[in-house]
Amino acid sequence: MDGKQRPDQPAGGQSRLDALGTPLIATTFVVLDLETTGLSPATDRITEVGAVKVRAGEVLGELRTFVHPGRPIPPAVTALTGITDAMVRDAPTMAAVLAALMTFLGDAVFVGHNASFDLAFLRAAAAAHGYGTLDPTVVDTARLARRLLREEIRDVRLATVARHLRTVTRPEHRALADARATVDVLHGLIERAGAYGATTLEDLRDLTRSSSDQTFRRIALVRDAPAATGVYRFLDGRGEVLYVGKATDLRSRLRTYFGADRRRRIADLIRETDRVEWTVTATLLEAEVREVRAIHHHRPRYNRRSRRPAAAVHVALTREPFPRLSIVRVAGRTHLKTVGPLPSRRVAEQLIEAVHAVVPLRTCSGRLRRSQDHAACVLKDLGRCGAPCDGTQQPDSYAEVVAAALAVLDDPARLLRPLRHRMLELARHGRFERAGEVRARLHAAARALTSVRRYEALTGVDEIVAARFDGVVTEVAVIRNGWLAESSCLPGAADDRAILGQVTPVVPLQLSVGDTLVDGVGHHQRADPEELALVSAWLDRPGTRVVDVRGHYAMRIAGGRDLSDTVDESRKVGRALRRDRQLLAGAKVTRRAAATATAPVTHAVVT
Predict the structure, then answer these.
(1) What is the pLDDT of residue 366?
(2) pLDDT tens digit string along 229-249?
(3) Which of 22, 81, 494, 509 satisfies CB 3.0 to 4.6 Å to 498 for a cystine?
(4) pLDDT confidence bin for 30, thresholds 50/70/90
(5) pLDDT (tens digit per residue) in 465-521
């Protein structure tokens, strides 16, 4: 139980499923039933409390008392329960009853038939009398009956379920009698659940969420999974990896695959799975990196993301009489300048489009000699190319264009500022659709150039030791030439000396092709763009600090302010556009999102 601790309140909180895997035979349940003056916890009050504490099928204690509601009991409630105003006239108030009831509940699991009703009244009473938030582990016998008896009974009312299971006690709309009947129902349902392999409190919870009996019966495959951060792999009978994923809580995440996830693809995955393996990691960053490496290596057929990693590409300015921009795999001597690596061909194309919008480089792909007599394309008439193809533009004049292109690629401000000016001019003249296209080009170019600079900075340094205190532990990451080499957690807010004492000295190259970490990386190994993005995002998180550097960790500063401002703007506009699309589609959005999503068209264009 959370909230204020009272002198008469037992030490320790309500049992939560953070301590996973509690055997049902060792679990203490408190079955509670309340009689009330009505259905609303906000306006109605409790008139009678009945509770039974059980463990391993044995009754440990019972509690039953009337409660003075402080108001008349409606005749309809009296007709249903038989409780009259005279019966509760001398009863204790809820303030007096609550202390004894909280002690009786202790850290046991809360059980009720339609438990949300009783728990809502109990929470309202606890909040009204200074007990704070009541948040116990809950077992709802109505939900469990709906899951286990759905083919056998017409409804899940307590009387119906009790009659079907032939309980010793029959419910009669009185608190203690109904609580005793619910105890019998609970034991009957636990016996039924055992046929599905449910032997722990966690199993019982997951069984109520499961939609597939066949899938849930295989939950034993992950019964030993720890409640820790890590990466997991589903394998078939031949040892082929079917799926790779990561989780901050392996046990909780893995159990969702066995019945709680209703996607057909997941059902097919579980049907083919022979075993599940997992690796506990020190940090989430390590789990993310292991996941990417394993997917790249195994190419699991049930993974969609990262299965076919796109080879990195470069944007190159060719070395020829009339240079042009081209997309190449590897930078070479035939290029005046290259920008990269970029994560995909699409990103490279967006960067080239942005440069062409500012610098009138030729866009044709053919190789031109110094003397040409080819027919010019429409770009000459549009004023976007000097037409060296038909001899209109001479090499000396075109050299000035090439120099401008080199300057743009060296200093992003020369690219971003003209694009921004063009976007604002279009918006000012009401050409919002065209302005949106220019804005997209502006943001894509800024993101691409930022990623290139970060790649150059991280891959060019021998070792970076960085740390981040998350309020509980200090996460430590060692990055060598762009690869994650080590990851660990230190208790509390560790100082730099303690952090450096945990770092393993650089060792010879041992680059795994599987899912293990890199112990040491040489300069000849090119970093993986996906892994580099994960490492970069972790370094950019608030609170991350660089503890030690071996080598030169620096990023080019030309145009840095424009890059940073444009990337930040890109994130804000992206969030605004997503909110706008949700609102236009009638999707559910948060109240805060709806309140901030004003003037969507203007905001999207000119921010």
Answers:
(1) 62
(2) 999 999 998 989 999 999 999
(3) 494
(4) very high
(5) 899 988 888 888 898 888 888 888 888 888 888 888 777 665 443 434 444 454 444
54-69: b (≥16 Cβ within 10 Å) or e: bbeeeeeebbbbbbbb
By residue range, what is the domain housing residue 333? 310-410
Q: How far apart are the first and last CA of the chain?
A: 47
Distance CA 534, CA 477 (A): 12
C-alpha 376/C-alpha 380 separation (Å) is 7
The number of domains in the chain is 4
Reduced to 3 states (helix: H, G, I; strand: E, B; else coil), residue 589 is: coil
Domain match, 328 and 285 both: no
Q: Tell me, yes or no, whether 97 lies in a domain.
A: yes
- Whose tokens are 């022979």? That residue is 274
CB 579 within 8 A of CB 593: yes
Residue 419 CA: distances (Å) to CA of 339, 381, 408, 413, 602? 19, 21, 12, 10, 18
- CB 351, CB 339: distance < 8 Å: yes
The residues that bridge with 337 in the sheet, in sequence order, are: 317
Q: Which residue has the tokens 């599940």?
A: 276
The beta strand positions in 37-137, using DSSP E, are: 46-55, 58-66, 109-112
Task: Tell me what pLDDT residue 18 has.
Answer: 42
The residue length of the chain stands at 607
Query: What DSSP character marks residue 518?
Result: P
Instruction: Note the pLDDT tens digit of each residue in 345-370.
Output: 888 888 988 988 888 887 776 666 55
Helix 395-410 to helix 413-428 angle (10° resolution) is 90
Token pair, residue 345, equals 């061909």
